[in-house]
Amino acid sequence: MIAARDAQRPVSISAAPYDGHAFPVLCDSMAACGVRFVEPAFIVGYTEPFDETMFSDANARQYRRWLEASGLGCHAFSSHIDLGRSDAVAVFTRRMEFAASLGARVINTNAALRANAARFHANIAPLARRAAALGMVIGLENPGNGEDNLINDAQEGLALIRALDLESVRLNYDPGNTVSHRPGRIDATADALLALPGCAHFHVKDVRRSDAGWRFTPPGQGEIDYETIMPALAGKANLPFAIELPLRMHRLRNAQPVRAPQPIPLPEIEAAISACLAYVGRWMACSG
Length: 288
Hints:
- The chain is of the alpha/beta class and about 290 residues long.
- The protein is built from nine helices and twelve strands.
- The strands form two sheets. Strands 2-1-10-7-6-5-4-3 form an eight-stranded parallel sheet. The chain has a four-stranded antiparallel sheet with strand order 8-9-11-12, with helices on one face.
Protein backbone atom coordinates (compact mmCIF):
# COMPACT_ATOMS: atom_id res chain seq x y z
CA MET A 1 0.00 0.00 0.00
CA ILE A 2 1.22 3.52 -0.80
CA ALA A 3 1.40 5.63 2.33
CA ALA A 4 0.05 9.20 2.26
CA ARG A 5 3.34 10.42 3.70
CA ASP A 6 5.08 9.38 0.46
CA ALA A 7 3.06 11.76 -1.69
CA GLN A 8 5.62 14.55 -1.30
CA ARG A 9 8.77 12.43 -1.10
CA PRO A 10 11.08 13.34 -4.02
CA VAL A 11 11.31 10.18 -6.10
CA SER A 12 13.44 10.88 -9.16
CA ILE A 13 14.20 9.10 -12.39
CA SER A 14 17.84 9.33 -13.38
CA ALA A 15 18.59 10.83 -16.80
CA ALA A 16 20.88 7.84 -17.43
CA PRO A 17 18.57 5.84 -19.75
CA TYR A 18 18.26 8.90 -22.01
CA ASP A 19 22.00 9.10 -22.58
CA GLY A 20 22.44 10.63 -26.04
CA HIS A 21 19.01 12.28 -26.21
CA ALA A 22 18.67 16.05 -25.88
CA PHE A 23 17.61 17.28 -22.45
CA PRO A 24 14.30 18.85 -23.59
CA VAL A 25 13.38 15.55 -25.28
CA LEU A 26 14.21 13.75 -22.05
CA CYS A 27 12.04 16.15 -20.04
CA ASP A 28 9.01 15.81 -22.31
CA SER A 29 9.35 12.03 -22.37
CA MET A 30 9.64 11.73 -18.60
CA ALA A 31 6.66 14.03 -18.08
CA ALA A 32 4.61 11.88 -20.45
CA CYS A 33 5.50 8.84 -18.31
CA GLY A 34 4.22 10.58 -15.17
CA VAL A 35 7.64 11.34 -13.68
CA ARG A 36 7.81 14.27 -11.25
CA PHE A 37 11.55 14.63 -10.64
CA VAL A 38 14.57 14.08 -12.88
CA GLU A 39 18.09 13.42 -11.63
CA PRO A 40 20.42 14.90 -14.30
CA ALA A 41 23.61 12.90 -14.82
CA PHE A 42 26.96 14.28 -15.96
CA ILE A 43 29.59 11.59 -15.43
CA VAL A 44 32.70 11.38 -17.59
CA GLY A 45 32.87 8.02 -19.34
CA TYR A 46 29.37 7.03 -18.29
CA THR A 47 27.33 9.64 -20.22
CA GLU A 48 27.65 11.82 -23.33
CA PRO A 49 31.02 13.67 -23.46
CA PHE A 50 31.09 17.14 -21.91
CA ASP A 51 33.58 19.55 -20.43
CA GLU A 52 33.47 22.05 -17.59
CA THR A 53 32.05 24.79 -19.82
CA MET A 54 28.78 22.83 -19.55
CA PHE A 55 28.24 24.22 -16.05
CA SER A 56 27.82 27.87 -17.05
CA ASP A 57 25.19 30.26 -15.74
CA ALA A 58 23.67 30.49 -19.23
CA ASN A 59 23.28 26.71 -19.43
CA ALA A 60 21.77 26.64 -15.95
CA ARG A 61 19.11 29.14 -17.03
CA GLN A 62 18.36 27.08 -20.14
CA TYR A 63 18.07 23.84 -18.19
CA ARG A 64 15.70 25.53 -15.74
CA ARG A 65 13.51 26.64 -18.63
CA TRP A 66 13.39 23.10 -20.01
CA LEU A 67 12.47 21.67 -16.61
CA GLU A 68 9.77 24.26 -16.06
CA ALA A 69 8.31 23.75 -19.54
CA SER A 70 7.83 20.05 -18.81
CA GLY A 71 6.64 20.54 -15.25
CA LEU A 72 9.54 18.56 -13.77
CA GLY A 73 11.48 19.22 -10.59
CA CYS A 74 15.11 18.49 -9.79
CA HIS A 75 15.93 17.28 -6.30
CA ALA A 76 19.11 15.27 -6.96
CA PHE A 77 21.98 15.71 -9.41
CA SER A 78 24.69 13.17 -10.28
CA SER A 79 28.09 14.49 -11.33
CA HIS A 80 30.71 12.05 -10.10
CA ILE A 81 34.37 12.93 -9.85
CA ASP A 82 37.20 11.80 -7.59
CA LEU A 83 37.12 14.35 -4.77
CA GLY A 84 40.80 13.64 -4.16
CA ARG A 85 41.77 15.27 -7.45
CA SER A 86 44.03 18.31 -7.22
CA ASP A 87 41.37 20.42 -8.99
CA ALA A 88 38.38 18.90 -7.19
CA VAL A 89 37.46 21.97 -5.12
CA ALA A 90 37.18 24.26 -8.13
CA VAL A 91 35.55 21.69 -10.42
CA PHE A 92 33.03 20.31 -7.96
CA THR A 93 32.14 23.73 -6.53
CA ARG A 94 31.04 24.87 -9.97
CA ARG A 95 29.04 21.71 -10.48
CA MET A 96 27.34 22.19 -7.10
CA GLU A 97 26.41 25.74 -8.02
CA PHE A 98 24.96 24.57 -11.33
CA ALA A 99 22.96 21.81 -9.62
CA ALA A 100 21.66 24.18 -6.94
CA SER A 101 20.46 26.59 -9.60
CA LEU A 102 18.23 23.79 -10.96
CA GLY A 103 16.75 23.25 -7.51
CA ALA A 104 18.84 20.24 -6.50
CA ARG A 105 19.31 19.61 -2.80
CA VAL A 106 21.60 16.58 -3.18
CA ILE A 107 24.61 16.22 -5.47
CA ASN A 108 25.98 12.70 -5.82
CA THR A 109 29.63 11.88 -6.45
CA ASN A 110 32.27 9.31 -5.68
CA ALA A 111 34.51 9.90 -2.68
CA ALA A 112 38.04 9.14 -3.91
CA LEU A 113 40.40 6.37 -4.82
CA ARG A 114 42.15 5.22 -1.67
CA ALA A 115 45.44 6.44 -3.16
CA ASN A 116 43.97 9.97 -3.13
CA ALA A 117 42.81 9.86 0.50
CA ALA A 118 45.00 12.69 1.77
CA ARG A 119 43.80 15.15 -0.86
CA PHE A 120 40.20 14.02 -0.34
CA HIS A 121 40.42 14.93 3.34
CA ALA A 122 41.92 18.29 2.45
CA ASN A 123 39.23 19.01 -0.13
CA ILE A 124 36.09 17.80 1.58
CA ALA A 125 35.86 20.54 4.25
CA PRO A 126 35.72 23.52 1.83
CA LEU A 127 33.36 21.56 -0.42
CA ALA A 128 31.09 20.79 2.53
CA ARG A 129 31.04 24.46 3.54
CA ARG A 130 30.01 25.50 0.03
CA ALA A 131 27.37 22.77 -0.11
CA ALA A 132 25.90 23.98 3.19
CA ALA A 133 25.84 27.57 1.93
CA LEU A 134 23.91 26.39 -1.13
CA GLY A 135 21.46 24.41 0.99
CA MET A 136 22.76 21.15 -0.44
CA VAL A 137 24.13 17.82 0.74
CA ILE A 138 26.99 15.95 -0.94
CA GLY A 139 26.00 12.31 -1.38
CA LEU A 140 29.10 10.10 -1.45
CA GLU A 141 28.35 7.08 -3.61
CA ASN A 142 29.92 3.64 -3.51
CA PRO A 143 31.50 2.91 -6.91
CA GLY A 144 30.91 -0.03 -9.22
CA ASN A 145 34.15 -0.24 -11.20
CA GLY A 146 36.16 -2.50 -8.88
CA GLU A 147 38.86 0.09 -8.10
CA ASP A 148 39.79 0.46 -4.43
CA ASN A 149 37.90 3.45 -3.05
CA LEU A 150 37.43 5.12 0.30
CA ILE A 151 33.90 3.69 0.15
CA ASN A 152 33.86 0.09 -1.07
CA ASP A 153 30.89 -0.95 1.03
CA ALA A 154 28.36 0.39 3.52
CA GLN A 155 30.57 -0.13 6.56
CA GLU A 156 33.37 1.96 5.06
CA GLY A 157 30.89 4.63 3.98
CA LEU A 158 29.34 4.90 7.43
CA ALA A 159 32.76 5.02 9.08
CA LEU A 160 33.88 7.78 6.72
CA ILE A 161 30.92 10.08 7.30
CA ARG A 162 31.19 9.53 11.06
CA ALA A 163 34.86 10.48 10.95
CA LEU A 164 34.19 13.55 8.81
CA ASP A 165 31.31 14.69 11.03
CA LEU A 166 30.07 17.17 8.41
CA GLU A 167 26.31 17.78 8.26
CA SER A 168 26.40 18.39 4.52
CA VAL A 169 28.23 15.14 3.68
CA ARG A 170 26.25 11.91 3.71
CA LEU A 171 25.90 8.76 1.59
CA ASN A 172 24.12 8.00 -1.65
CA TYR A 173 24.10 4.22 -1.55
CA ASP A 174 23.74 2.22 -4.79
CA PRO A 175 23.23 -1.57 -4.47
CA GLY A 176 23.63 -1.98 -8.23
CA ASN A 177 27.21 -0.76 -7.95
CA THR A 178 28.05 -3.13 -5.12
CA VAL A 179 27.28 -6.18 -7.26
CA SER A 180 29.98 -5.39 -9.85
CA HIS A 181 32.39 -3.65 -7.48
CA ARG A 182 32.86 -6.60 -5.15
CA PRO A 183 31.29 -9.56 -7.00
CA GLY A 184 30.56 -12.51 -4.76
CA ARG A 185 32.15 -10.79 -1.76
CA ILE A 186 29.37 -8.55 -0.48
CA ASP A 187 25.63 -9.21 -0.22
CA ALA A 188 24.29 -6.07 -1.93
CA THR A 189 20.89 -6.37 -0.26
CA ALA A 190 22.24 -6.63 3.27
CA ASP A 191 24.78 -3.89 2.53
CA ALA A 192 22.02 -1.56 1.32
CA LEU A 193 20.05 -2.06 4.54
CA LEU A 194 23.17 -1.36 6.57
CA ALA A 195 23.82 1.87 4.66
CA LEU A 196 20.35 3.41 5.03
CA PRO A 197 20.95 5.29 8.31
CA GLY A 198 23.84 7.20 6.72
CA CYS A 199 22.06 8.11 3.49
CA ALA A 200 20.81 11.48 2.33
CA HIS A 201 19.79 9.84 -0.96
CA PHE A 202 19.59 6.34 -2.42
CA HIS A 203 19.85 4.83 -5.90
CA VAL A 204 17.39 2.08 -6.75
CA LYS A 205 19.32 0.17 -9.42
CA ASP A 206 19.18 -3.50 -10.29
CA VAL A 207 21.64 -5.56 -12.31
CA ARG A 208 21.90 -9.01 -13.84
CA ARG A 209 25.20 -10.83 -14.43
CA SER A 210 26.01 -12.70 -17.64
CA ASP A 211 29.13 -14.25 -19.13
CA ALA A 212 29.90 -10.87 -20.73
CA GLY A 213 29.58 -8.83 -17.54
CA TRP A 214 26.64 -6.94 -16.04
CA ARG A 215 23.47 -5.48 -17.59
CA PHE A 216 21.09 -3.12 -15.81
CA THR A 217 17.41 -3.97 -15.40
CA PRO A 218 14.31 -2.41 -13.85
CA PRO A 219 14.19 -3.13 -10.10
CA GLY A 220 12.87 -6.57 -9.29
CA GLN A 221 14.17 -8.07 -12.54
CA GLY A 222 17.81 -8.48 -11.52
CA GLU A 223 19.73 -10.26 -8.79
CA ILE A 224 19.24 -7.74 -5.98
CA ASP A 225 16.47 -8.48 -3.49
CA TYR A 226 14.38 -5.32 -3.83
CA GLU A 227 11.44 -7.12 -2.24
CA THR A 228 13.45 -6.67 0.97
CA ILE A 229 15.02 -3.27 0.22
CA MET A 230 11.88 -1.43 -0.86
CA PRO A 231 9.89 -1.89 2.40
CA ALA A 232 12.92 -0.66 4.35
CA LEU A 233 13.32 2.31 2.00
CA ALA A 234 9.60 3.08 2.23
CA GLY A 235 9.95 3.13 5.99
CA LYS A 236 12.50 5.93 5.74
CA ALA A 237 9.86 8.57 5.06
CA ASN A 238 12.32 11.44 4.72
CA LEU A 239 14.81 9.67 2.46
CA PRO A 240 14.55 10.65 -1.22
CA PHE A 241 15.79 8.31 -3.90
CA ALA A 242 16.22 7.97 -7.65
CA ILE A 243 15.53 5.02 -9.90
CA GLU A 244 18.64 4.60 -12.03
CA LEU A 245 18.60 2.46 -15.17
CA PRO A 246 21.63 3.04 -17.44
CA LEU A 247 20.21 1.22 -20.45
CA ARG A 248 22.88 2.42 -22.87
CA MET A 249 25.69 1.26 -20.60
CA HIS A 250 26.82 -2.12 -19.37
CA ARG A 251 29.82 -3.28 -17.38
CA LEU A 252 32.39 -5.73 -18.66
CA ARG A 253 33.49 -8.67 -16.53
CA ASN A 254 36.22 -6.43 -15.09
CA ALA A 255 33.47 -3.96 -14.04
CA GLN A 256 34.58 -1.21 -16.43
CA PRO A 257 31.71 0.68 -18.12
CA VAL A 258 30.99 0.46 -21.85
CA ARG A 259 28.41 2.58 -23.68
CA ALA A 260 26.52 1.34 -26.73
CA PRO A 261 27.31 3.21 -29.98
CA GLN A 262 23.78 4.60 -30.31
CA PRO A 263 21.20 5.97 -27.83
CA ILE A 264 18.37 3.68 -26.77
CA PRO A 265 15.13 4.38 -28.73
CA LEU A 266 12.58 6.44 -26.79
CA PRO A 267 9.80 3.79 -26.82
CA GLU A 268 12.16 1.29 -25.20
CA ILE A 269 13.20 3.83 -22.56
CA GLU A 270 9.61 4.79 -21.80
CA ALA A 271 8.54 1.16 -21.44
CA ALA A 272 11.40 0.56 -18.99
CA ILE A 273 10.53 3.69 -16.98
CA SER A 274 6.90 2.63 -16.78
CA ALA A 275 8.03 -0.75 -15.43
CA CYS A 276 10.22 0.98 -12.84
CA LEU A 277 7.41 3.28 -11.69
CA ALA A 278 4.97 0.40 -11.44
CA TYR A 279 7.37 -1.65 -9.34
CA VAL A 280 8.34 1.12 -6.94
CA GLY A 281 4.73 2.29 -6.77
CA ARG A 282 3.85 -0.90 -4.92
CA TRP A 283 5.47 0.68 -1.87
CA MET A 284 5.27 4.44 -2.38
CA ALA A 285 4.00 7.19 -4.64
CA CYS A 286 6.48 8.16 -7.33
CA SER A 287 4.37 9.87 -9.99
CA GLY A 288 1.24 11.86 -10.46
